[in-house]
Design a protein that fits this description.
Number of helices: 4
Mean pLDDT: 86
Strand content: under 5%
Radius of gyration: 15 Å
Order of helices and strands: HHHH
Low-confidence stretches: none
Number of strands: 0
Shape: extended
Length: 70
Amino acid sequence: MKPYEAFIGFSHSLGPARILIGCETAAQLAANLRAWEATRPLADEIVSLAATIPDLPEETLNPACWPRGP
């Protein structure tokens, strides 16, 4: 499974929430829609996998905290 497919699959666990997926081409949109359908039966497994990923600190997640270049 590609990372973007896992992220799309995780969104199945969000209930009635809506997600926004960007694309630049019709082919990318088609791939996103295929991933949405293909990951539906895997949603519980993806959520379980996501629960094993440790929380990352703000310094890692927030680009404003990253060191400035030279």
